[in-house]
Amino acid sequence: MQQFLHSMKHYAIFFAVIAALTYVLTLVLGADKVDLDKYSTVTITKGDTLWELSNKYHNHHHLTTNEFVKWVEDVNDLNSDTAQSLSPGDKLYIPVLKKELHNQVAIEQ
User: Fold this and answer.
1) Which of 11, 35, 83, 104 is the most exposed place for a label (fewest CB within 10 A)?
2) What value does the mean pLDDT take over residues 64-72?
3) Residue 60, by phi and psi: left (phi above 0), alpha (psi -120 to 50) or beta?
4) Taking the model in full, what pTM does it have?
């Protein structure tokens, strides 16, 4: 009987560790998710670069140019090569809240 209890104790510890790891992984992996519905999209025109987009929208975000570029690359699954070869018509999410651009348009009208 004592051996059975000892064995059950090991199973309980094992399952507690698995549950804790699952919880931590859920928090860590879920933290990187971005709610894209909140962010603006832009349509690339000829000659656009991520650096130019950062400068164009600098009044609407609080990132450095490098942070802006990194955010756009990460969220849009771009690497440095694909970021260099943007094509007119490509649509990209940018780290500018939709409400920020909406407010700007309302002010200008």
Assistant:
1) 35
2) 96
3) alpha
4) 0.64
